[in-house]
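Data card: per-record layout.
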Amino acid sequence: MAFPGTGTIWMNGKLVDWADARIHVASHVVHYGSGVFEGARCYDTVKGPAVFRLDAHLRRLIDSARIYRMDSPYDQQTLHDAVLDLIDRNGFRACYIRPLIYRGYDSLGVSPLACPVDVAIMLWEWPAYFTKEAIEEGLDVKISTWARMAPNTLPAMAKSVANYANSQLIKMEAIADGYAEGIALDTSGNLSEGSGQNIFVVRDGIIYTPPIASSVLWGITRDSVMTVARDLGFEVREQALPRETLYIADEVFFVGTAVEVTPIRSVDKITVGRGRRGPITEAIQQRFFDIVKGEAADTHGWLRPVKSSEPATSGAPNAR
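The structure for this 320-residue chain is written out next.
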């Protein structure tokens, strides 16, 4: 998705034109990947623009920074208000939201402690990550030759820019081999996640997903989908899943802020189920989209209107 090149970006408490939002090439984050980020969505609901689980996303942003010993100069409420104000100022009804906390310009060396902690928030209009056909019919994916990081090497729970070097390798390999996406295994050979998506497997009416210990990001859409599935009466289990689970599954689907809920129709050229979106995936997908569009009751308080006189309802408790 190409950037629009216009609009306003929030940088360290100031509004900056898109073209002027720059950092120095000697910034620590450029050389050592010392940054964390979030991806959230603002949806054009029937009641106006609203951000999906903004509090949960910002909480995870600050948690990710804490893991990397970065103390954000702005608290969660300040960032919350900045996001809503920025959406309003840019005039967006629907957009992708990308807050970052990163080590800036001071000195270079493995230790980042002398470098300032900078914060930025950028927005852009971003449609569905995959095509309408993919959302209905499903993706062709492969098991990547690249594994997710081992526990106690890099923290998978932190949404760190450094972790996405691994994601790039998974994604590029999949594209080079003619697939839409790749699925990584953990270092024990069990299912982990896609290049930037959590994964769910359906077998005999039960929904399975790898546990956090399988080097997966503690996904907010993952948590939302588990909640939606249980609300619909489905049983959801978090457990270690061997690779071959994908080959005998009735349904498999990705979830994430960018991909939302997207089915998988084949893995390693083995057809999943009937080779298109299955009924459980479709039911979850439909309920999820109804909620984010404001067409179904927001019983969990996940939507934060961009303009509202009502106090914010936190989605944070369900994110953990």
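Known properties of this structure: DSSP finds seven helices and 17 strands in the chain. Residues 8-127 form a domain with the D-amino Acid Aminotransferase; Chain A, domain 1 fold (CATH 3.30.470.10).

See the next section for split statistics.
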